[in-house]
Amino acid sequence: MNTGSTRAGRALRPGFSVTVVLIAVLIWLGSPTWAGAAPAALDLQPGQALYATQCALCHGPSGQGDGPSAAGFATKPSNLADGRLMNGLPDDFLANVIRHGGSVEGLSPGMPAFGEYLSDAQIRQVILHVRSLALPPFRAAAVVPIVTAPRAPTQPIFFSHLIHAGKYRMDCQYCHADARRSEYAGLPSVERCLGCHKIIGALDNPEIAKIQEYAGRGQPIPWVRIFKLPEFTYFTHKAHVRFGLACQTCHGPIERMRMVGAETGPSLADDLKKLVGFKPPPRPLTMGWCVACHRQQNAAHSARAPLDCVTCHH
Ligand code: HEC
Ligand code: HEC
Ligand code: HEC
Ligand code: HEC
Ligand code: HEC
Ligand code: HEC
To answer: How close is the Cα of 235 to the center of ligand 4, in Å?
Structure first.
């Protein structure tokens, strides 16, 4: 019972040891872990050291994209401290870019691949440090994960909605400008892309250089269609968008997709399930999907969505 304290009392003056303990407790209480904020300073140290040796040269000591080598790049090293742009991008995205280089996400190859030099654990440590640089501060709870859409086709240019509509929050209708006023939503013209990309990425990003090549040949970019109804049906964006339905209701969380894709139209598997008595939810762009929403919107929001055959089938 008395052993430990008696021995300590003999070795040190009691007053001194109490002071030491009190100071230690005060330091601990004041540390960010206790406050429930970011990771403890100790956890950040390995990442900070790796950052200083591997990244600061280009991204700058405080992440602002102003390192000593930055001036040499046509596409400047990203400002990793700009929380408004960086905080919404999940760790997966950062890790992918750090491991495989910028090209893996369609970004400039000026961002080198570190997979051969940094272990997965070290990449996690560097990300922890990068997150600590952000202003406004990074909050893990506010991050939305990337969505890997099914059946995404390879497009002629690696255009990422995650970057344009996610990171930079460009409005959907800035590019799909016909959605409010016509049958089609429309895809942006080469000229619209060039409005930004005559400058952004034009010199050192091969994906962006392709835009210039199509423009030079006077060709539209041959995007592969994803959402397509059979010819014998009639659909119009205008009525749906003006009614206030979000694009995502029908197309999914596009702003979180690197590549757009979807399972659409009738499927044999679903037909077989129905034969044996299951009721799979209707797949997007099937007649069941259109009609189920029309019934629901008419009942719940006094919409006047058509249920008669001829409106959807001319
Ligand atoms: C040789 C210069 C260079 C070095 C070294 C470098 N980067 Fe980069 N990095 C770049 C450039 C240039 C870009 C911009 C790519 C773009 O926007 O197309 C970039 C982009 C990024 C991005 C993408 C951010 C965004 O805009 O979405 C991340 C994340 C990143 N770097 C992290 C790191 C980390 C972590 C290190 C150290 C392990 C590092 N970089 C080292 C040049 C560099
Ligand atoms: C900077 C321009 C731009 C912005 C902003 C943008 N898109 Fe796109 N969108 C494109 C391009 C280019 C394609 C064709 C390539 C592809 O499928 O990724 C496309 C394709 C699509 C498709 C698939 C079309 C098809 O073939 O069926 C949908 C759906 C879509 N976008 C919806 C959206 C939504 C929803 C938003 C907002 C969250 C949005 N887009 C923001 C340019 C843009
Ligand atoms: C309003 C300005 C704007 C418009 C319009 C725009 N972009 Fe971008 N785009 C950007 C910015 C900003 C970046 C990020 C550049 C970087 O960090 O390297 C980017 C990045 C890219 C990239 C590299 C990253 C990725 O998405 O894979 C490609 C490729 C690209 N854009 C293609 C296009 C195409 C094709 C169009 C037209 C359909 C288009 N952009 C329209 C601003 C724009
Ligand atoms: C009620 C469901 C619904 C809503 C809401 C909706 N779409 Fe669509 N979208 C579709 C369908 C169905 C198709 C296929 C149309 C066809 O093949 O005729 C489509 C096709 C597209 C296409 C490719 C062909 C085209 O029309 O140019 C794009 C791009 C697109 N949508 C973008 C958008 C955007 C952006 C919004 C929001 C402003 C939006 N959609 C809202 C159902 C919807
Ligand atoms: C998420 C719900 C939803 C889905 C899915 C949907 N619609 Fe609609 N649709 C509506 C609503 C709501 C209206 C009525 C708008 C109003 O009352 O002004 C409407 C109206 C229409 C109209 C009338 C247009 C007009 O000019 O008056 C047509 C045609 C139509 N939809 C076709 C379709 C087809 C074809 C599909 C499937 C490919 C489809 N819709 C899928 C909600 C939906
Ligand atoms: C709200 C729009 C809408 C209404 C109302 C509608 N359809 Fe359809 N219908 C579609 C769409 C979209 C497709 C194509 C997708 C599919 O095959 O599921 C389709 C497909 C079909 C097909 C082809 C199915 C196949 O297996 O190829 C037939 C036949 C059909 N509809 C008959 C009708 C009849 C009869 C009515 C009236 C009782 C009707 N539709 C009402 C939207 C509609």
So the answer is: 9
